[in-house]
Amino acid sequence: MALSVHKSGGRPSVEGTEALDRTVLDSATRAFLADGYAATSMERIARMVGCSKATIYRRHHSKEDLFRAVVRERCRHLFDAMQEASLSPADPLLALRQLMWRFLEFSLIPETVETYRVMIADGRRIPALLDSLADEIGRTFHDHITNLLARALHAGDTPAEARWLDQLAHGLTGLISGWAFRLALVGRQPFETAADKKQFFDTTWSAFAMMLQASRKNRDAGP
């Protein structure tokens, strides 16, 4: 059923417009996750919403633009986590720990897993779009981790240290979510209970924190 977005005088209401925006995004999400990027058409999404294609194109200029909006929405949990971490300037290590816990949770959300499956399946058809999303979302998240590590370790002043921090950030994300996310991608459940997930995180974070502590001691000791 088409949504009504007009007041009695004919002008769109704010509430109606926002509701239609939400419906377009929700319908596009369902279509992309069910059929993939290539097999989803703007015509189908318009039928799901109950509106014209022109209505969708006024909000999203192309199918790529709409898919980008879907991915951004799916990553809102991660963006919120980065924002919260940025509000903890006094203890960058604690902020990093909280961020990585949110990252593990984000990685295992069913919609996150399905979105990655779509990108893997259709990646060769839309390489420019995936590169753009990697720069916008992936690089932003990676840089946030790197900055927190630099503050925690008082490092990053030289090109060699910057490269080390970059590698360390990649290693941390793989340590925290790599194994669990790979299982989720192939349809397996990495953790039987929430307690199992928390125990896994505490174990992997403790190992990483011990390495950071040793690194800080070595830096404080000097040459």
TrEMBL record:
Matches recorded under Pfam families: TetR_C_7, TetR_N
GO molecular function: DNA-binding transcription factor activity; transcription cis-regulatory region binding
Domain of life: Bacteria
Annotated signal sequence range: none
Keyword Transcription included in the entry's annotation: yes
InterPro entries registered for this protein in UniProt: Homeodomain-like_sf, HTH-type_TetR-like_transc_reg, HTH_TetR, Tet_transcr_reg_TetR-rel_C_sf, TetR_C_Proteobacteria
Keywords: DNA-binding, Transcription, Transcription regulation
The protein, known as: TetR/AcrR family transcriptional regulator
